[in-house]
Amino acid sequence: MAGLHVKKNDVVQVVSGANRGKTGKVLRALHDSGRVIVEGLNFRKKHTKPSRDNQQGGIVQKEGSISVSNVLLYCPSCKKGVKTKHEVRKDGTKTRVCRKCGEVFDKA
Questions:
Q1: pLDDT tens series, the chain, 108 aa
Q2: Half-sphere exposure of residue 75, counting CA atoms within 13 Å on the CB side?
Q3: Rounded Cα–Cα distance for residues 90 and 22 (Å)
Q4: What's the number of domains the chain is made of?
Q5: Are 14 and 22 in contact, with CB atoms under 8 Å apart?
């Protein structure tokens, strides 16, 4: 699988599926499967048995993964999800840049 266009702690907007139009922060980027876990979106219910840590057991809600093709990086100046391009700085580092307004996402 090639590299993903989003990273951990990026703010993304969902462009298709049940959560279309919603935004959230990326908690994990799963490079091997091409999916991301976004905070507060795509909840799954998991039934857990009682254990030493969880004496009660019961139903636990967790965020499920979303395909990386269904999310776009959220641009704060454009106020929507945008496509990005890569630019090489003078010091040789690569940065992601908004295609519409030129906002730089990887500020170092």
A1: 567 889 999 999 999 988 899 999 999 999 999 999 999 999 999 999 999 988 898 999 999 999 999 999 999 999 999 999 999 988 888 899 999 998 898 875
A2: 17
A3: 35
A4: 1
A5: yes
- Let me know if residue 100 belongs to a domain: no
- Burial string for 55-64 (b: 16+ CB within 10 Å, else e) reads eeeeeeeebe
Q: Which domain holds residue 36?
A: 11-51+58-79
Asked, for residue 31, whether it belongs to a domain, the answer is yes
In this predicted model, what pLDDT tens digit does every residue of 37-56 receive, in sequence order?
Answer: 999 999 999 999 999 988 89
Burial of 18 (0-12, 13-18, 19+ CB in 10 A): exposed
Asked whether residue 3 is assigned to any structural domain, the reply reads no
Contact 68, 45 (CB under 8 A): no
The answer to whether residues 81 and 75 touch, using CB atoms and an 8 Å cutoff, is yes
Q: In this structure, is residue 95 part of a structural domain?
A: no
36: domain CATH number is 2.30.30.30
